[in-house]
């Protein structure tokens, strides 16, 4: 297993301090503060450890309250809100430097049979028919700040293949829609709670970026401020995050320095496995530096 995949698994395997209290470390992936997907995945991992077996997470709703400090651990306090006959509810507060940085609620459900339907997967090229992203030219890469070098490095735990690639350093304007295939670069254990936590982690990629597509701006530009405000996710069907998944994202509106994005995640064989919604802060100030 590659070091980056092992590091990601370690991030999601929290240290248990008390029955309902956990501690998680952070990883610098090139973002200005703690990556929102990391906090989502860790909060879900903490909540899952307080729910009896047989009940799987089916939905989560979260608010990002403060920017997380990459250099310090995060404490996760789990409240066992309810354990009913078929559903369990957990609330999680992420704390850093004595202040809440993140609030999270998740619902868990026993497996039941019932009605079933789904929207079809978009008709897009298969992942193996798409080329991996081309690396930046060495002279461009060398001029980037260290954080952006980590972001553009090729040693991350996930592999992405964009149906409609875009140059984030010089982005064109285009409709607010994108399709991205993704998967972990290595196989990981066959553990359903682990794969749900990994899917929560990866669901924070690409959503806010979709809101910026019609405006020809990018989070890499110095005059653009971007931050996740909230995140909702529904788990529909089991999946493996170490197999190809299609993330289909669109943005129906942006206004008042906020953009809304929606996502659907499909397995390669066309099963709808999860849905997401996120609102993000998008501020553009003056001219690009």
Topology of this structure?
Blueprint (H helix, E strand, L loop, with lengths): L2 H10 L2 E4 L2 E4 L11 H13 L6 E10 L9 E10 L3 E10 L2 E12 L27 H6 L2 H7 L5 E5 L14 E8 L7 H11 L4 H6 L11 E12 L9 E11 L2 E10 L4 E13 L5
Antiparallel strand pairs: 1-2, 2-4, 3-6, 3-9, 4-5, 5-6, 7-8, 8-10, 9-12, 10-11, 11-12
Keywords:
alpha+beta; Porin; 6 helices; twelve-stranded antiparallel sheet; 289 residues
What report would you give on this structure?
The protein has 289 residues and is α+β, with helices and mostly antiparallel strands. It has one domain (3-111, 127-284): Porin. Helix content is 18%, strand content 38%. The protein is built from six helices and twelve strands. It has helices at 3-12, 36-48, 138-143, 146-152, 192-202, 207-212, and strands at 15-18, 21-24, 55-64, 74-83, 87-96, 99-110, 158-162, 177-184, 224-235, 245-255, 258-267, 272-284. Strands 1-2-4-5-6-3-9-12-11-10-8-7 form a twelve-stranded antiparallel beta sheet. Strand 11 and strand 12 form a beta hairpin. The chain is globular and about 55 Å long. The mean pLDDT is 92.
């Amino acid at each position: 297993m590659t070091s980056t995949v092992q590091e990601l698994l370690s991030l999601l395997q929290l240290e248990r301090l008390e029955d309902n209290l956990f501690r998680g470390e952070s990883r610098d992936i090139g973002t200005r503060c703690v990556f929102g997907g990391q906090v989502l995945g860790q909060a879900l991992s903490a909540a899952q450890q307080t729910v009896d077996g047989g009940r799987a997470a089916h939905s989560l709703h979260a608010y990002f309250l403060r920017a997380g400090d990459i250099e310090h651990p995060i404490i996760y306090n789990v409240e066992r809100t309810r354990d009913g006959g078929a559903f369990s509810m957990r609330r999680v507060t992420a704390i850093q430097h004595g202040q809440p940085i993140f609030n999270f609620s998740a619902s868990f459900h026993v497996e039941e049979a019932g009605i079933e339907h789904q929207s079809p997967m978009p008709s897009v090229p298969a992942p193996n028919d798409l080329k991996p992203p081309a690396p930046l030219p060495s002279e461009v890469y060398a001029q980037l700040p260290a954080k952006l070098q980590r972001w553009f490095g090729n040693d991350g735990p996930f592999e992405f293949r964009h149906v409609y690639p875009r140059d984030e350093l010089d982005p064109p304007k285009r409709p607010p829609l994108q399709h991205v295939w993704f998967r972990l670069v290595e196989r990981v254990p066959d553990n359903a709670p682990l794969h749900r936590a990994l899917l929560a982690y990866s669901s924070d990629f690409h959503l806010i970026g979709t809101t910026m597509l019609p405006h020809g701006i990018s989070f890499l530009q110095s005059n653009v401020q971007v931050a996740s405000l909230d995140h909702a996710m529904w788990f529909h069907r089991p999946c493996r995050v170490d197999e190809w998944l299609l993330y289909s994202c669109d943005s129906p509106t942006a206004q008042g320095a906020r953009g809304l994005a929606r996502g659907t995640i499909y397995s390669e064989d066309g099963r709808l496995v999860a849905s997401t919604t996120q609102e993000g802060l998008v501020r553009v100030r003056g001219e690009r530096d």
